[in-house]
Specification:
Alpha-Beta Plaits, about 210 residues, 2 domains, alpha+beta, 5-stranded antiparallel beta sheet
Length: about 210
């Protein structure tokens, strides 16, 4: 108890205004020195937290976010790797389908033969071909449209047979802009545009 009493007495006798005069630090009571050491140490800890620990926490948060991003990228790549064979099979299937579609597109040298096929289909359907002619090509981004203007004479049954016959050709042919007009006899005039398509070979054009 006497030690505590002495400490209290020293603190009571100490003139706190002397803190402004650091030259007298050597004669300050031990309790005062201890309090100052504690205050300075606490200040250093607080400063270390605010200036260092907070920076570390910020860096940790950044690293955590980067880890989440990297992990997501890794999981995506791992998923792709695990399904690589399936993707290769799908790619091969798409290439085969594309090649098959290209086979159904006439080349420039095959277009006259396609016109003959259209003519034969019309005549085989019982139609009278009054006109069939190639129109100007229409160049699109990846392909070229080849319109064929067709004028035929027949009845509705013949028209239906003609359209069905065109749909069954080996080449891709679509029908557009048809008009049907009556005649003085029992037959009808039909004008229609048949379009086929040719693949646009960019490398060949260059």
């Amino acid at each position: 108890m006497s030690v505590i009493t002495n400490l209290v007495t020293d603190l009571q006798k100490f003139d706190w205004a002397d803190l402004q005069d650091l030259d007298t630090m050597g004669v300050w009571p031990s309790p005062v020195k201890a309090i100052i050491v504690i205050v300075v140490f606490s200040g250093c800890l607080a400063a270390g937290y605010f200036f260092h620990v907070q920076n570390l926490q910020s860096a940790l948060a950044t690293s955590t976010a980067e880890e989440i991003t990297i992990r997501a990228e890794f999981e995506a790549k791992a998923f792709l790797a695990s399904n690589l064979e399936e993707y290769r099979a799908q790619t091969l299937e798409m290439e085969e389908s594309f090649t098959e579609l290209l086979r159904q597109l006439p080349s420039a040298t095959e277009v006259p033969g396609l016109v003959d096929d259209v003519t034969d289909t019309g005549e085989g359907s019982g139609l009278e071909i009054s006109n069939i002619a190639l129109a100007e090509e229409a160049v699109r981004e990846f392909y070229i449209e080849l319109p064929i203007d067709i004028d035929v004479v027949g009845d509705y049954h013949d028209f239906g047979s003609f359209v069905s016959g065109l749909a069954s050709l080996d080449r891709i042919v679509t029908l557009h802009d048809f008009t049907i007009q009556s005649r003085s006899d029992t037959y009808l005039n039909m004008s229609i545009v048949a379009k086929t398509y040719r693949y646009k070979d960019v490398d060949a054009e260059l």
